[in-house]
Amino acid sequence: MAVGAAPKTIIELLLRGALAIVAAGTAAGLVAAGAGTHLAKALIFGFAANDSTTFIAAVILLLAVSLIAVLVPAYRATKIDPIIALRQD
Q1: Using one digit for the tens of pLDDT, what is the confidence trace for 36-85?
Q2: Beta carbons within 8 Å of 83's beta carbon, 6+ residues apart
Q3: What residues contact residue 51 under an 8 Å CB cut-off, 6+ apart?
């Protein structure tokens, strides 16, 4: 903001970066969970290996928590006066 960026631009930049990391982690987690469910199915009798409802709920919860974790500090950062922030460093 000290060099002319709009608050909306800063929030979008932070969201893009965070969502890219979350998407990569979610994809890796889904692959690992898929492998883990097949292992659990082999070890536990009566275990449903393809419970898509649980996977979808976990992804939605992860995205919601990630959005909150990014938006709250980003919003607070846009409310700080750039001159005050630069003087404190």
Answers
A1: 887 777 777 766 666 788 888 989 999 999 999 999 988 888 888 777 77
A2: 2
A3: 37
> Helix 7-43 vs helix 52-78: angle between axes, to the nearest 10 degrees?
160
Length of the chain: 89
How many angstroms separate the Cα of 39 from the Cα of each of 46, 80, 88? 13, 50, 53
Question: CA-CA distance, 30 to 71, in Å (whole number)?
Answer: 24
CA nearest 30: which of 66, 64, 56, 48?
Answer: 56
For residue 44, give the amino acid letter.
I
The predicted model scores a pTM of 0.71
Q: What is the pLDDT of residue 7?
A: 83
Residues with Cβ within 8 Å of residue 86, at least 6 apart in sequence: 2
